[in-house]
Amino acid sequence: MPDDFEEEMPKKRKKGKPLLTGKRATILLVAIALIVLGALFQHFLVEPVLEEQNAVKYARCLTQKQVLDERFVQADSERRACEYQLAQCTAG
Fold it and tell me: Helix (H, G, I), strand (E, B), or coil: what is residue 80?
C-alpha cells in the first residue's frame, strides 16, 4: 500500500518568476547610482588635486633636468680640456 501514496500525487508546477523583480531593480539602480556618483567624485574632486600635484612635480623635474644638462655640458667641456692638456703634455 505504500505505493498508492506515491503514484497519484500531482506534481507542483513552478511559477515562472520574472528576471527583474522590484527588489532586484532597486538594487541594480542603487548600484548604478553609486558607480555614477563615484565617477563624478573622482572626476571633479580627485583628479584636479592630482593634476595640481603632477604639475608641481613636472615643474620640479624640468628644473632638475635643466641643472643636470648644464652640469653635463660643463663636465664635458672640462673633460675635453683635460684631454687636450694631456695630449699637450705627452706630445711635448
Answer: helix
